[in-house]
Amino acid sequence: MINRNPNSNETLLSIKDLVKTYPNGTQALKEVSFEVRRGEFLVVIGLSGSGKSTLLRCLNRLNDPTSGEITFNGKSTLDLKPAEVRNLRKKVAMIFQHFNLVPRHTVLSNVLMGRLGDTPSLKSLFGMFSAPDYQKAREYLNLVGIAEKEKMRADQLSGGQQQRVAIARALTQQPEILLADEPVASLDPATCHTVMDYLKKVNQELGITIICNLHFLSLVRQYATRVIALKAGEIVFEGSPTEITDDWFARIYGHGAREVHIN
Amino acid sequence: MATAPEKFILIKKGFWGMKASLVKTTFFDGLVLGYLLVVVLIAILHPSDEQMLELSKNTLIFLSCCLVGAGASFLLNFFKLKTLGELIFEDAEAKANLVSESWYKTVWAWELIVFLVTTLIVGVKITQFSVFELMDQQGFQGAIRLFQGLMSPNFDLLPRAVLNIIVTIFMAFMATALAIPIAFVLCFFCAKNIMKTPGAFVIYMGLRTLLNIMRSIEALIWAIIFSVWVGIGPFAGMMALMIHSIASLAKQYSEIVESVNEGPIEGIVSTGANKLQTIWFAIVPQVVLPFISFTVYRWDINIRMATIVGLVGGGGIGTLLIQFQGQAMWPEVGTIILVIAFVVWFMDTASAYLREALK
Predict the structure, then answer these.
(1) I need a labelling partner for B312 at 20 to 30 A (CA). Which of A185, B88, B128, B168 fits?
(2) What is the interface pTM, i.e. ipTM, of the complex?
(3) Interchain pair B282, A166: CB under 8 A
(4) Is the pLDDT reported for residue B35 higher than 90?
(5) Does the beta carbon of A180 lie under 8 angstroms from any beta carbon of chain B?
(6) Which residues of A touch B2 (CB under 8 A)?
(7) For domain B154-357, which CATH number applies: 3.40.50.150, 3.40.50.2300, 1.20.120.790, 1.10.3720.10?
(8) B3 touches chain A (CB under 8 A)
(9) What is the pLDDT of residues B267-280, one digit of tens each?
């Protein structure tokens, strides 16, 4: 079950010498190693193309790493059979920059899709989700504050609302980790904070570990408990958000870069 | 980017280490120039009919001409005179660095002009295009008599025509309805974005090839095959249309599946859903409206094709038409054409409205 103690020191995820080289020769990750403790709000920063998305997508096996090791709850995730990969994905949920909800389906139906991993194929084809599934879906819709929109078509919602539905879908999976790939990059500044606040709530109230890719340092300082910075596929900084000085900022983002504040 | 040079080499290395664009360019120019050379040869040598029928010898001559053309293309491009093939197939890099030059100073423009003019002249010769035939007094009178017959339709035939067109409409309906489930299942197996693994790719290629062959055989040919197989009548016509519809719909459906937004697919895959669930929840909602629209259009096409298929023994109104046409009973033919025109017009309009509403 979910550990509700965010201060535990238990290592949940450990990444060792992770390498990902794309078929066209691009080296997205070069021997990346770090550990994630249960209950953390870990933020990954870096320029576009620095390998942040690839890193996250290796963690739930949307991408297959070229070499290295990933252990989740003490078990390696790189030598799994297809069915075991699906089990891993149930535990390591993900939300995306473009929300990736299913259009023409209602909000509630989208959230219920978080239960697909635990629903037999035939039942799911007829949309037969169990009563506890419905209960969970509504509970999490309530948590992200859009329970009243459950009958609306998902593609009719605003960006911020769609991302909250995506969070609810991810929570319905009952995950231990929530990966967030640029969750606020296509949202306006005000909505940005709403979505980040919900992620914080998920982290603190449900004790779900969060690994989040972000662009804006101001958000990082506000929400992260720990930060990793990637540059050209390598970790160049690891530490607490308060340690990112102007000097570090220049090193991560290149000299001449300027910090943009969004609050 | 440190990896850029590697990428660059990968793209440029094509056929046997040659540039892929060079192969395409030479092949294209070889065909165009070889064809022009053959036309010139025929114009000069005036070969006899017997000589024209010597297929293997003539193929050899054509291929040698193509080889000469390919050589010419290679030389021209070697000396930086851009040919038509090079203009079409050159690298993206070369396309980005476009040199503006007056068109009449370029090789490719003249290659294009000579090709088009030659083809037009050859076309007039081969199709025996003749203004005299069009103006021929006797032939024109015949056409007028036929039109007069068509314009005074014999409405005694109307009940039979109506019954026969109903048969035709149902032939089209059955062909479409039976093709839908088969095409729906097949389309996912011939969509590139679903069949990604090497094993699946073999199925994808095999199925695509099979469907392409099925589609390249016209419904008319299928109707002839089935009229021998199951006997002349609506069943043969329906089977012919169904085979053709399966191939066409599966192709169109799979193209829609290939163009879906990848986002929802990732979203569903990341919940731990299996392949079937991913298709059902992430792809089907995105494709269902275009599928319906294409299906309605296919039914519309099938109604028109059902008439044609009837001409070769597929049953329905087409068979009736060919009977009366064979006896030169033009007023009866006029009635049949009227009924067909009305139904086709009605279905065409209805399907247009339906597809518009489904957008």
Answers:
(1) B128
(2) 0.90
(3) no
(4) yes
(5) no
(6) 27, 232
(7) 1.10.3720.10
(8) yes
(9) 999 999 999 999 99
